[in-house]
Structure formats: structure tokens, C-alpha cells
Amino acid sequence: MLQVEVFRTNVVEKWQAERIACKLIEKFPDHSIHFDLEDREKILRVEAKGINQEKIISVLADSGFSCEVLD
Fold first, then answer.
1. Which has the closest alpha carbon to 24: 41, 65, 37?
2. Which tens digits make up the pLDDT trace of 9-56?
3. Distance from C-alpha of 71 to C-alpha of 62, rounded to nearest angstrom
4. Residue 45 in contact with residue 11, Cβ under 8 Å?
5. Cystine design at 47: which of 18, 32, 38, 41 (Cβ 3.0–4.6 Å)?
6. Is the pTM of this model over 0.85?
7. Do 24 and 33 touch, CB atoms closer than 8 A?
8. Is the pLDDT confidence value at 59 over 90?
9. Angle at Cα 38 formed by Cα 34 and Cα 48, nearest 5°?
């Protein structure tokens, strides 16, 4: 069964989102990664069978962005 996690980020530019999505897909090739920069929360949506929230947050932090799980 697929798990869905939604994260709040501070990514604002499309090119930034594309760069981060590439990094995430490289680390997690079985994950579906989508940004919604139109949303005020700058949403990152991740779908997969198993999602490690801490690792997702770490990839964004390593790229200089904040990321937190949205409840």
C-alpha cells in the first residue's frame, strides 16, 4: 500500500524544485516526488511504499532548504 507524506518547504523557484526532485529521485528511485510551489506552504508531496521522513528532510537541508512534515 502506498504511503503519502506531505512536507512544507521554503523552495520558491521552479529550478530549485527540479534540482531537489532530481536529488530525491536519485536517492529514492521508487518514490514519486512532486512540488506544488503555487501553494503557500510550497508543498513537497512524496508517495512510496515506505518513506523515511528524516532522510527526505536531510536531502533538502543539505541543499540549503527547510522542510517539515505537514500535519
1. 65
2. 999 999 999 999 999 999 999 999 999 999 999 999 999 999 999 999
3. 23
4. no
5. 32
6. yes
7. yes
8. yes
9. 15
Per-position DSSP letters for 33-70, written without gaps between them: EEEETTSTT-EEEEEESS--HHHHHHHHHHTT--EEE-
Helix (H) or strand (E) holding 3: strand 3-9
Q: So what's the pLDDT on residue 71?
A: 81
Total of domains in the chain: 1
Q: How far apart are CA 67 and CA 48, in angstroms?
A: 18
Residue 1 pLDDT grade (very low, low, confident, very high; cuts 50, 70, 90) = confident
Q: Which of 3, 27, 26, 22 is nearest to 11 (CA)?
A: 22
**For residue 24, what are the domain limits?**
3-69
